[in-house]
């Protein structure tokens, strides 16, 4: 893996270049610490919503209904790093079902970093579901290391609310009716001390965050693949009235895969 932008050493969370950080011309496997420094959340405080997605050259976010077919080993290492840095991972119910989500696990390589940041042993998983049509007997809900949260609306079905709470799930009301409001979801999670937020989609949920103007950063892997077909893009739903501009923060490359990171330009 090599850094194409910036071409200098990736900086650590302290703002200093890591002593053993790769240079722009270095083409080797980065360590977990180097990746964690490169993808560190801003130190300014406050909530920060980051998205992590993968896309083919022709814009497909999935192949055969899953993202795994267009990913690669380094993409999965970055995926694990982003999870290792996050307080909470936000995902839509359909993505949780189709990707077979399980509880996030504690990883020794992140233990010291998470302890220093006063984080739990692993990120919480927050599932967005208006209907609460979820199988609460699955390990994600019944046996997580960190209690799973479910984001839903004020009028979610009472029987499903009861089932969620009986399973030990923390229900977070973040909208009216059965709809989850994206901005309120971000605020409700931050109110629980979950400021370092990561969403892994799916496309409809990411589209809602984009439309609400609450996405701070996009980590997008561009796979050197063409799939054609009618697979979803990384973000779906109604278009925004005025496209929002993001700036390139970093660009890594390995075997033709581009690992991009864009941050919202704040006025």
Coarse morphology: globular
State mean pLDDT (0 to 100 scale): 91
Strand content: 15-25%
Distance between the termini: 33 Å
Question: Which strand order spans the largest sheet, edge to edge or round the barrel?
Answer: 1-9-10-8-2-7-3-4-5-6
CA-atom Rg in angstroms: 18 Å
The helix count comes to 8
Number of E-state strands: 10
Percentage of residues assigned to helices: 25-40%
Poorly predicted runs = 12-21
Overview of this protein structure:
By secondary structure, the chain is of the alpha/beta class. 25% of the residues lie in helices and 22% in strands. It contains eight helices and ten strands. The chain has helices spanning 32-38, 73-85, 93-98, 108-116, 139-142, 158-166, 182-191, 203-212, and strands at 2-5, 48-56, 88-92, 124-128, 149-152, 170-173, 196-199, 217-223, 246-254, 257-264. The chain has a ten-stranded mixed sheet with strand order 1-9-10-8-2-7-3-4-5-6, sandwiched between helices. Helix 5 (139-142) links the parallel strand 4 (124-128) and strand 5 (149-152). The longest helix is centred in the N-terminal third of the chain and has 13 residues, at 73-85. The chain is globular and about 55 Å long. The two termini are 33 Å apart. The model is unreliable at 12-21 (pLDDT under 50).
Summed up:
It contains eight helices and ten strands. The protein is an alpha/beta fold.
Give structural attributes.
single chain; about 270 residues; alpha/beta; 10-stranded mixed beta sheet; 8 helices
């Amino acid at each position: 893996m090599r850094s194409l932008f910036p071409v200098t050493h990736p900086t650590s969370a302290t703002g200093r270049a890591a002593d053993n950080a790769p240079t722009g011309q270095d083409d080797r496997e980065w360590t977990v610490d180097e990746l964690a420094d490169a993808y560190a959340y801003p130190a300014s405080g406050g909530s920060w919503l980051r998205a992590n997605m993968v896309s083919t050259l022709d814009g497909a976010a999935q192949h055969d209904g899953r993202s795994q077919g267009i990913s690669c080993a380094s993409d999965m290492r970055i995926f694990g790093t982003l999870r290792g840095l996050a307080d909470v991972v936000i995902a839509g119910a359909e993505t949780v079902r189709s990707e077979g989500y399980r509880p996030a696990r504690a990883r020794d390589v992140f233990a010291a970093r998470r302890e220093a940041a006063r984080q739990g042993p692993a990120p919480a998983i927050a599932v967005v579901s208006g209907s609460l049509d979820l199988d609460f007997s699955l390990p994600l809900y019944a046996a997580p290391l960190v209690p799973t949260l479910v984001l839903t609306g004020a009028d979610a079905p009472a029987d499903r609310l009861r089932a969620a709470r009986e399973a030990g799930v923390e229900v977070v009301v973040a909208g009216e009716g059965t709809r989850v409001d994206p901005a309120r979801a971000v605020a409700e999670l931050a109110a629980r001390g979950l400021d370092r937020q990561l969403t892994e989609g799916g496309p409809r949920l990411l589209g809602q965050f984009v439309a609400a103007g609450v996405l701070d950063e996009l980590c997008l892997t561009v796979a050197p693949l063409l799939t054609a077909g009618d697979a979803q893009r990384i973000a779906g739903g109604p278009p925004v009235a005025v496209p929002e501009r993001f700036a390139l923060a970093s660009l890594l490359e390995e075997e033709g895969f581009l690992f991009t990171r864009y941050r919202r330009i704040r006025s």
